[in-house]
Amino acid sequence: MSLLARLTPHLPYVRRYARALTGDQTSGDHYVRVALEALAAGERSLDAAMPPRVALYHVFHAIWCSTGAQLEDRTESTSTADDASQRLMRIAPRSRQAFLLTALEGFTPTEAAQILGCDFDAVERLISEAQTEIDAELATDVLIIEDEPVIAADIEALVKELGHNVTDIAATRTEAAEAVARHTPGLVLADIQLADGSSGIDAVKDILARLDVPVIFITAFPERLLTGERPEPTFLITKPFQPETVKAAIGQALFFHPRNQKKAAA
After folding, report:
1. pLDDT tens, residue by residue, 36-61
2. On the chain, which terminus has fewer CB atoms closer than 10 Å, C or N?
3. Burial of 90 (0-12, 13-18, 19+ CB in 10 A)
4. Cα separation, 204 vs 235, whole angstroms
5. Cis ω on the peptide bond leading into residue 52 (within 30° of 0)?
């Protein structure tokens, strides 16, 4: 199989990543093009020990890191960039890389370590640093829809640890609707099976009919959402959950969700 044939399926994704990393499509495409030209000329080669996609991103990073520091000092205005792009560019470059590779591109920390040429612990530290910056900037009001008091308390503690404010904990669909009427949330964390037999899925549908807000489902019944019969949620965490998984999902949900909704006054 030719080099082009091996890499073609991955090119749209490395372009997406390059745009997010540099904050600009033109700059991102330039670095992707330079990486491909280096491969074609034999100046760089794909590491045969890595899967093709991982190897491609590894080559891209070698090219970007050799000259990409220039991009951190760009003087042109970024006022027309979207909110996520502007937030990304405020994160330290190395942390930004680790965060994007795992949160946007879906690489595991181990794969990200291969791409960045560092060890697993370093990647975990970089992701944590990016997460801390994101959480500090995107602190918001959170509605928890959960009927188990102990689990609700655990989630509330995680949310507060990240610097967010829990406005309500609802145990039923009706309580969730009442909570939203009292205070507009910036994030919803929802279980599926609620106290009175009502559905967290229906509660979330009610909310999304009124608000543009990110939602994370935390449930012991993920199969009820992964049916293929309706759009499946971007953020779905299975109980019992790991605290770090919930924290990462909160950061990603807030970071990548369009900030079209203004907070209502408390």
Report:
1. 999 999 999 999 999 999 999 999 99
2. N
3. exposed
4. 13
5. no
Q: 88-108, pLDDT tens digit by residue? A: 777 888 898 998 999 889 899
CA gyration radius for the chain? 21
Q: Are residues 47 and 68 in contact, defined by beta-carbon separation less than 8 angstroms? A: no
State how far the alpha carbon of 121 is from the alpha carbons of 46, 110, 124, 126, 239, in Å: 24, 9, 5, 9, 26
Give backbone dihedrals phi and psi of 7, rounded to 5 degrees, phi first.
Answer: -95, -25
Mutual orientation of helices 109-116 and 120-137 as an angle, nearest 10°?
110
Position 255 scores a pLDDT of 80
DSSP the chain: --HHHHHGGGHHHHHHHHHHHHT-HHHHHHHHHHHHHHHHTTSS---TTS-HHHHHHHHHHHHHHHHGGGGGG--S--TTS-HHHHHHHTS-HHHHHHHIIIIIS---HHHHHHHHTS-HHHHHHHHHHHHHHHHHHS--EEEEE-S-HHHHHHHHHHHHHTT-EEEEEESSHHHHHHHHHHS--SEEEE-SB-TTS-BHHHHHHHHHTT----EEEEES-GGGT-SSSSPPPS-EEESSPPHHHHHHHHHHHHHHS---PPPPP-
DSSP bridge pairs for 188: 143, 215
Spans of the chain, pLDDT less than 70: 1, 68-85, 87, 226-233, 258-266
Nearest to 147 by CA among 167, 175, 170: 170
